[in-house]
Amino acid sequence: MNTSRLSFVAAIGLLAVATVAINYQVKVRMQVGTGHGSITSLGKLKLGDSAPDFTLPDLAGQEVALSAYRGKKVVVLDFWATWCGPCRMAMPGLQALHEEMKGDGVVLVSVNQAEGKERVRGYIERKKYTFLTVLDGNGDVGNLYGVRALPTLVVVDKQGAVRKISIGMHNDSALRKELLALAREP
């Protein structure tokens, strides 16, 4: 067998192993929570922990700090990427959530993972999404939160505590109820 054919076969084998490993992580290990993709921890981050603070630029280049919402609003962090099919499928529901809840003390912060500003801006503008989008250009914030699969949703209460972690698609009506209850808390 020649070297290039052997390299091709090895690459296909590695791809198959990686696919099985990723599938196992997302479908088995990460789904040990309360259903609908909800889990009790993400990396070192656990429900009830203080959400790690971060500052990232939005699409206009303005700095956005998570701590700016502390004591004021419930924050929904949506970690996503334009290449992620489930992320794109979840976006219309997140836009509806944003429109319905922005006056109820809830802010949606869409945290794009490691993509260029123009690509993200083009996608957001083309789809006419109006929620706040920030750029995690090198994925540091995603790593800080332990994000290993997209989309990942993290809900932070007004005091800055992590109250929900969800991997993959989520139940929009259940999420709305949870967010309204959190928004009513002092």
Could you walk me through the main structural features you see in this protein, from its secondary elements to its overall organization?
This protein has two domains: 1-30; 34-184, 3-Layer(aba) Sandwich (Glutaredoxin). Strands 1-10-9-6-7-8 form a six-stranded mixed sheet. Helix 2 (85-101) links the parallel strand 6 and strand 7. The protein has helices spanning 3-29, 85-101, 117-127, 140-145, 172-184, and strands at 38-39, 41-42, 45-46, 55-57, 63-65, 74-80, 106-113, 132-136, 152-156, 162-167. The chain has 186 residues and is α+β, with helices and mostly antiparallel strands. The longest helix has 27 residues, at 3-29. It has five helices and ten strands. Residues 27-35 have low confidence and may be disordered.
Write a brief structural summary.
This protein has five helices and ten strands; from the N terminus they run αββββββαβαβαββα.
